[in-house]
Write a structure and sequence with these properties.
Blueprint (H helix, E strand, L loop, with lengths): L1 E2 L1 H13 L15 E2 L2 H5 L3 E7 L37 E5 L5 E8 L4 E7 L17
Parallel strand pairs: 1-3
Antiparallel strand pairs: 2-6, 3-4, 4-5, 5-6
Length: 134
């Protein structure tokens, strides 16, 4: 299933309102991290859909990090046109309403599953900044 940005925003809003203690978030930070073995081995998560992108365009490996954020930052913005969000999928917990972003990071010699809690407050679109020439 392909999810539009609006679908993902709705899922994120529900996820952000979840307050139930659940094993799906045990030990997770708010930023990207390696998928914990406990989640990988469990059947807690279910696939909700792929992020909608223009498949005709080549996917960018460019990241979007305003205000000094970086890939691992807990407050890094979630922008679907940028890496790694443009190759992520959305997963949900079977026991609560929390949602997650997942992607496979492919290295030279191995691949690794990454996961991040989907937070509605971080979803945005980069604003084109005007650069003034001196």
């Amino acid at each position: 299933m392909i999810l539009t940005p609006e679908n993902i925003r709705q899922i994120a809003e529900r996820s952000s309102l979840e307050t139930t203690a659940c094993s799906c978030i045990r030990g997770l930070s708010q930023g990207w991290e390696t998928l914990p073995k406990t989640l990988e081995a469990s059947s807690l998560l279910r696939f909700l859909g792929e992020i909608s992108t223009d498949r005709a365009q080549e996917l960018s490996l460019e990241e979007y990090h305003p205000n000094g954020t970086h890939f691992w930052s807990e407050d890094a913005p979630i922008c679907f046109d940028f890496f790694p969000y443009n190759i992520s999928s959305v997963w949900g917990c079977k026991c609560c309403a929390r949602a997650f972003l997942r992607f496979t990071e492919a290295g030279a010699y191995h691949s690794e599953q990454r996961i991040r809690i989907l937070r509605a407050s971080l979803i945005g679109n980069p604003v084109q900044e005007e650069h003034v020439q001196d």
